[in-house]
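Duplicate of #3305? Posting structure anyway:
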């Protein structure tokens, strides 16, 4: 069980020209309001939209990374000296990212 709002999260335009992030029960956040940018700052709008897409994908990315790290760890002995160091490092990095996303719980 996760402490975050379960996915899927989707993006939807809001009345101010920004983007809301919605889950099954309602809006859980606003990636950007659409009113905080001065005219002539299109790069900030592009960046904020890209951030919104990343935020909306977060629950799916987290679950996929958990499954991938667990599958690799089950198929390869992470304690064995014969296991590829790159594989061990990839699993360790995945678990660190999972812990970061879940407040320290992998």
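Output from current build:
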């Amino acid at each position: 069980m996760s402490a975050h709002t379960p996915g899927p999260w989707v993006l939807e335009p809001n009345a101010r020209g920004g983007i809301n992030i919605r889950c099954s029960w309602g809006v859980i956040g606003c990636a950007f309001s659409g009113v905080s940018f001065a005219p002539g700052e299109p790069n900030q709008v592009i960046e904020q939209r890209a951030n919104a897409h990343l935020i909306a994908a977060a629950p799916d990315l987290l679950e996929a990374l958990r499954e991938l790290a667990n599958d690799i760890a089950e198929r390869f002995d992470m304690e064995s000296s014969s296991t590829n160091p790159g594989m061990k490092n990839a699993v360790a990095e995945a678990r660190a990212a999972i812990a970061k996303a879940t407040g320290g719980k992998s």
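Confirmed duplicate; merging threads. The chain is about 50% helix and 15% strand. The chain has one domain: 10-101.
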